[in-house]
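Entry for fe (iii) ion complex. Fields follow.
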Amino acid sequence: MTSGERANHAREESLTNEVVRSFAAADTRLEEILSSLVRHLHAFIREVHLTPEEWSAGIDFLTEAGRITDGRRQEFILLSDVLGASMQTVTVNAPANPVATESTVLGPFFAEGSPLLLDGQDIARGAPGSPCWVEVEVRSESGEPIPGARVEVWGAGDDGLYDVQRSGDEMANRAHFFTDSQGGLRFWGILPSAYPIPADGPVGRLLAAAGRSEMRPAHLHFLITAEGHSPLITHLFVSGDRYLATDAVFGVRPSLVVDFPEHPAQETAPDGRRLERAWHSMSHTFVMAEAGPSKA
Ligand code: BEZ
Ligand code: FE
């Protein structure tokens, strides 16, 4: 290293330390987060030797993300998702538990206020797609059924869209249920389809520039809550989907990939119905971790 380089290095270090010190009076956790953020951010700028033009392009990117964000579109969550930051947050907060169902990202299409449906009802409510019979069981780590668990479920239609992305306020392919005395519930829905994440904004351009896929493999979302247990936010993915290895948001866990077998038209469904068209089915047992510190 030349003496000039050594002087520059010292100036850069000194600036980082000065900024870190400026947050010293913040509350302890805030200080921990900000000082680490500043150190990593400065290290990144120094490592790639960020130019003023590149810094400016980054600011323009964030400005555009802010402009496109509204009540129905959240470009910053999308950015966090494609950078793997959402999934890394899920990962650090879900210590390895050998029995509980694994978590994955919530995604931007969860909506409050879904209809409460009863066992055996149809959540599709007009969303397009092939009918799918779903059977779910919710159990504790010790294998006991959990009655009264609240199971929220939502998914895209085979047009690749969630209800909140279509015009109008009608909720479709989205509902919540409570498990019965055996911890079970059943419903009709639609076979999940792969779909692209919203790609008409800065995040879509970022993926295109990197030659990355904007597709999410076919999946159905679940949010399950039960007294005495940690909330479970997860998906079930359709086995065989061509995008499982290239999920745009890194949300796939092998343990969450399940079969959705096809049944011919006229085969009697578990609720006694005989449909005029082919249908699919899926059954899965969710295991909820006990609330409180992990025992793993
Ligand atoms: C979703 O699965 O709904 C989703 C997750 C992350 C980004 C976009 C969509
Ligand atoms: Fe989704």
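NOTE: The chain has a mean pLDDT of 95.
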